[in-house]
């Protein structure tokens, strides 16, 4: 009989504790592709998918061993034509659950990833990469590459662009470039050293080409980067990894952007008939208040009517005929 109170207490705790404390850590997808080399590793296969839940460090190890990146990022590997560039794109929009949804708001990005995955010579997918907030994803992956290669690390340059956080004392080459286009121009103009550069671009709202334009979606940014690398004539491989935890760092960014848009377009906002998220929340609250007031009036009216009913205390006896 003592088991019942403990069971009820456990159920009560489950109901009270927020979902975030008991939920499984969220996972993010990763896609790798290249049309400039064929997969020659011992364990890898073309167009393969790894369905295991792996950490960022395990992802870096799998990219080197299974996807063949060790052939041009590590010394001592026999590779006929080393690549000029390994592009690591850190996104912030996709989660693993978005891959199975029929309707989503990131259709441009998903279409680009699917097309690149199916049309490239070498491609791999990692749908379940565990996200961690202890350290930035770009640092975890770069350090994972260095640990996997060990003393045989053969990367030419490591350049961080976009919203990546870095240590300038370690990656001094990153301070010399302010945009991807500037890096590509200097890369193709210089003499080839036979080593592959690692370009890490973190999508965080900044423009990759240092041009003041309308903010682009993540699919448009990634497509623009790939097209620029194609036009430069460089041989490259791309690794896309999503990191939605970046959006938590700036929770008021969208509210600030919405406020600025409304303040600069007051005339359009006044004539607009579209109800956005904030409008829907306010309308739902007003509807709830109105319904509550109506129900309260009905309850008070019913109580007043019941209190106004007077029943006789004595009934006359029926007359005998």
Q: Name the shape in a single word.
A: elongated
Are there runs of 5+ residues with pLDDT below 50, and where? 1-24, 248-259
Order of helices and strands: HHEEHHEHEHEHEHEHHHH
- Percentage of residues in strands: 5-15%
Quaternary organisation: single chain
Give the structural class.
Answer: alpha/beta
Query: Mean pLDDT, nearest integer?
Result: 76
How would a textbook summarize the main sheet? Answer: 7 strands, mixed
Q: What's the helical proportion of residues?
A: 40-55%
Strand runs, count: 7
Describe this structure in words.
The chain is α/β, with parallel strands linked by helices and 321 residues long. It has a domain at 26-245. It has helices spanning 3-16, 19-22, 56-65, 70-73, 107-119, 137-149, 180-189, 218-232, 246-249, 253-264, 266-271, 277-307, and strands at 27-34, 48-49, 85-91, 122-130, 155-162, 196-202, 236-242. The chain has a 7-stranded mixed sheet with strand order 2-4-1-7-3-6-5, sandwiched between helices. Helix 7 (180-189) runs parallel beside helix 8 (218-232). The protein is elongated. The N and C termini lie far apart (67 Å). Residues 1-24 and 248-259 have low confidence and may be disordered.
Topology:
Blueprint (H helix, E strand, L loop, with lengths): L2 H14 L2 H4 L4 E8 L13 E2 L6 H10 L4 H4 L11 E7 L15 H13 L2 E9 L6 H13 L5 E8 L17 H10 L6 E7 L15 H15 L3 E7 L3 H4 L3 H12 L1 H6 L5 H31 L14
Helix pairs in contact: 3-6, 5-8, 7-8
């Amino acid at each position: 009989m003592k088991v019942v109170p403990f069971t009820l207490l456990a159920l009560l705790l489950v109901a009270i504790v927020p979902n975030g404390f008991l939920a499984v850590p969220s996972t993010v997808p990763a896609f790798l592709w290249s049309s400039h080399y064929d997969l020659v590793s011992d364990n890898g296969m073309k167009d393969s998918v790894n369905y295991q839940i792996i950490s960022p460090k395990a992802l870096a190890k799998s990219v080197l061993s299974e996807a063949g990146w060790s052939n041009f990022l590590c010394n001592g590997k026999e590779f006929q034509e080393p690549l000029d560039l390994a592009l690591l794109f850190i996104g912030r929009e996709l989660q693993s659950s978005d891959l199975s949804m029929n309707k989503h708001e990131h259709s441009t990005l998903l279409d680009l990833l699917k097309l690149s995955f199916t049309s490239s010579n070498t491609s791999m997918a990692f749908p379940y990469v565990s996200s961690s907030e202890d350290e930035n994803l770009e640092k975890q992956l770069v350090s994972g590459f260095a640990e996997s290669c060990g003393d045989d690390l053969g990367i030419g340059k490591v350049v961080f662009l976009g919203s990546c956080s870095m240590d300038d004392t370690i990656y001094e080459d990153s301070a010399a470039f302010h945009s991807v286009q500037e890096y590509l121009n200097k890369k193709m103009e210089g003499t080839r050293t036979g080593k592959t550069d690692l370009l890490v671009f973190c999508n965080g709202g900044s423009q990759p080409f240092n041009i003041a334009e309308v903010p682009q979606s993540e699919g448009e940014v990634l497509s623009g980067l790939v097209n620029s690398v194609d036009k430069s004539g460089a041989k490259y491989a791309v690794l896309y990894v999503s990191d939605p935890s970046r959006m938590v760092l700036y929770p008021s960014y969208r509210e600030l952007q919405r406020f600025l848009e409304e303040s600069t377009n007051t005339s359009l906002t006044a004539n607009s008939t579209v109800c956005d998220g904030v409008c829907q929340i306010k309308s739902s609250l007003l509807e709830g208040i109105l319904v509550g007031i109506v129900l309260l009036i009905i309850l008070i009216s019913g109580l007043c009517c019941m209190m106004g009913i007077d029943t006789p205390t004595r009934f006359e006896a029926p007359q005998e005929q």
